[in-house]
Amino acid sequence: MWRNPQAEAGRSRQNASAPIAERGVPATTVSAPGERTSDFGVMLFSAFAAAVAFALVCAAGWMLAGSFAFPVAVCSVLAAVLVVMAVHISQQWERVVVQRFGRFSRVAGPGLFFTIPFIEQTPIRIDCRTRFTAFGAEETLTADLVPLDVDAVMLWMVHDAKAACNEVSDFSATVELAAQAALRDAIGRLTAAEVAIRREQLDVDIRQILEDEASQWGISILSVKIRNILLPQALQDVMSLEAQAEQRRKARIILMEAEQDISTMIEGVGEAYGGGDAALRLRQMHLMYESVRETGGTVVVPSSFSEGFVEKASDQRAAEAKAACAKK
Questions:
Q1: Structural domain contains residue 306
Q2: Where are the alpha helices (DSSP H) in the chain?
Q3: What pLDDT, on a 0 to 100 scale, did the predictor assign at position 126?
């Protein structure tokens, strides 16, 4: 059956970005196709070394015996096997643990290294590059007994291949389980609101717990990041109402501060119109103007509303005229 590679790659990226609780799969390391490294060069080198050893022994047997006999073939195959067991190569990011008679001997690599056939073994090749592991905690109770679903991502690497091989049986699975336990422990010490607000502090706490535990396995925890926090729907509604009330309170405080500044300025303007109730009436006119501008309506003002301003203005002009006459 024909498959569309682009569609499959898109579905893979969507599945990788979805929360763990929705995917229902264990935490894994996800990488895009074409970005994975290959061990083809290492296998090709082993095959080339075996072929060279086989050809040299065959040529030596042909020169000594004068023909390609069965003992020559057996010796050639044995020489090829011994070369494969003795000559190794590791990538730049790999470290190979070498054991002699079952006991730790050394850590080899990167590059070309040799071992003694049948005496030394290479039980594991460890990738020392930075890895990332996605993990999560489902329905974890907080300090105020609220169940949360939390997804996180951890960046880590192996800095001591000897400890990673000898101190723990499966360091990848152990780090994942330790991360899940640390996440549950950190959530259990905080309330639901603190988990939602203090995400950065939660990252630091989880990393510190994992670093103290994983250092004995030769593993360094580089960073831990919380990706998603799922709150119960009822709690989301309550926290939303609380946040709306807090924003309304801040808005009212800002309006009152602005009103205080406006009153100070209008008081100075009102004195220019003769003082008294002029400042209050001027503020009423400003409020009416703002309401009309926002709603787009029309306001009918009674004639008596402006009489006070007219009287004040005429009294002020009369006072100015008297003062001018007195000067003359």
A1: yes
A2: 5-17, 20-23, 40-65, 70-86, 161-166, 171-188, 192-197, 199-214, 233-272, 278-295, 307-327
A3: 93
CA pair distance 154, 13, nearest whole angstrom: 18
Same domain, 218 and 262: no
CB within 8 Å of 54: residues ≥ 6 apart:
76, 77, 79, 80
**Is the separation of the CB atoms in 132 and 157 below 8 Å?**
no
**Look-up: residue for tokens 């291949």?**
161
Question: For tokens 């929360």, what's the residue?
Answer: 19
Residues 189-241 have pLDDT tens digits of 888 888 888 888 889 889 998 998 899 999 999 999 998 888 777 766 766 77
Distance CA 33, CA 316 (A): 87
Number of domains in the chain: 3
Q: Is residue 252 left, alpha or beta, with left meaning phi > 0 and alpha meaning psi from -120 to 50?
A: alpha
Express each pLDDT in 62-101 by its tens digit.
888 777 778 888 898 999 999 999 999 999 999 999 999 9
Q: Which of 39, 48, 52 is nearest to 90 (CA)?
A: 39
3-state secondary structure of 122: strand
The order of strands in the sheet holding 103-108 is 103-108, 94-100, 120-127
End position of a domain, from candidates 191, 211, 231: 231
